[in-house]
Amino acid sequence: MARFSAQSTATVLRGAQAQPAARPAAVSLEEQRAFWREAFRIVRAETEARAAPLSSEDQIVQSMPDASPTKWHRAHVTWFFETFLVKPNAPSYREFDERFPFLFNSYYVAAGPRHARPQRGLITRPNHADVTAYRAHVDAAIEALIDTIPAAQAGEFFRILEIGLHHEHQHQELLLTDILHAFAQNPTYPAYDAGWQAPKRALSQGGYVDLPGGIHEIGHEGDGYGFDNEYPRHQTLLQDIRIARQMVSNAEWLDFIADGGYANAALWLSDGWAAVQNEGWQAPGYWIERDGGWHAMSLAGLMPVDPADPVRHVSYYEADAFARWAGKHLPSEQEWEVAARMGLLDDAFGLLWQWTRSAYLPYPGYRAADGALGEYNGKFMVSQMVLRGSSLATPAGHERVSYRNFFYPPSRWQFSGVRLVEFP
Q: With a threshold of 0.85, does the pTM exceed it?
């Protein structure tokens, strides 16, 4: 599946050059140190590779409250390592700048006060070079700890380090989605990477395939990494359904537009119809009608809409309205996960996150961790909808079948698409 790689600054590649190998199991402490040192370097380099095509002016822009500047992303993930790993384990650590915890904390109330999220773009100073120096300062401290952490503390240290690496993966994806939104507001439609091309979907016969009902298990399994919201693994009861092998295409969405889909209130949830009216939606996010045809903003700038590509940058409200128009439904997250585990889906990973009809709620028996890290997922389990899969912006190695992404229903600046189900 297509990926951005630290080995090629902003070029979409096939492969997984930007991910570390599988984490070590029963190996010596020195082998663990070597593994985590390399994993840390790879992830940190990927962030810098994604930021490299951007100017200092690009790195400060915040185009809406839900997005953050590139410079802030680079600093925030560094603050995470400094706050949760360096300061607790290195008593002699010299803080880079005492102002940074306030500026670059995100939502961790237990970690202290923070600058207002909608005003992150107003932080012109420290500049991007200061953030680069901050990253180098904390990187040196982390690598020193990797080399010296005592055996008695190593297990917990490496556990939190792994959380930090996956946290940085998430911000690598947000870095791209946020700068794309910013560039889409620019009337010159600048390219992040002029050579970028959308990854092509897998070839198949399409259509719908049977997903047998009954009791199935979902949730994270195995020894690999999983966020706390993927636990505990548990049983779920499904009805017989048929699920689409492929995601909805631009050609199908053009039919929805031509049939007045954005003008038919009967297709929309009440809040969705309000969003259509208030925001003036007439097509997916970043679509512009020009020269007699539809174009869409992409990482390569403004490009003609390819009818064969899966539609992207649609909200939950739009996905739900399209499903009603098509006489279908969105899958539940349980249906999606079971179908993906059974290999029934084309392009489950690597193209677009796929909306489900499931509200983002805790699994049965879920308990958030104690302390500030317990704020990572649990407190957001309300008023949002689950997306499954991964997108073309997701770092290699970050996707898995149990991953639960979540956004508010109007959100459409993410690389989000639509897969349908039907009931027999």
A: yes
Please, what sign has the CA dihedral across residues 88, 89, 95, 100? negative
Q: Is 91 exposed, middle or buried (0-12, 13-18, 19+ CB in 10 A)?
A: exposed
> Do 223 and 122 have their domain in common?
no
Helices (H) and strands (E) in the chain, counts: 10, 14
Residues 284 and 146 in one domain: no
Q: Give Cα separations from 185 to 76, 104, 207 (angstroms).
A: 24, 25, 37
Residues 284 and 399 in one domain: yes
In tens digits, the chain (424 residues) has pLDDT values of 233 333 332 332 223 334 555 666 668 999 999 999 999 999 999 999 999 999 999 999 999 999 999 999 999 999 999 999 999 999 999 999 999 999 999 999 989 999 999 999 999 999 999 999 999 999 999 999 999 999 999 999 999 999 999 999 999 999 999 999 999 999 999 999 999 998 988 877 889 999 999 999 999 999 899 999 999 999 999 999 999 999 999 999 999 999 999 999 999 999 999 999 999 999 999 999 999 999 999 999 999 999 999 999 999 999 999 999 999 999 999 999 999 999 999 999 999 999 999 999 999 999 988 888 888 888 999 999 999 999 999 999 899 999 999 999 999 999 999 999 999 8
116 and 54 fall within a common domain: yes
Report the candidate in 29, 44, 136, 154 with the shortest Cα–Cα distance to residue 89. 154
**Neighbouring residues of 352: CB distance < 8 A, sequence distance ≥ 6:** 247, 310, 312, 389, 391, 392, 415, 416, 417
Provide the β-strand partners of residue 236. 216
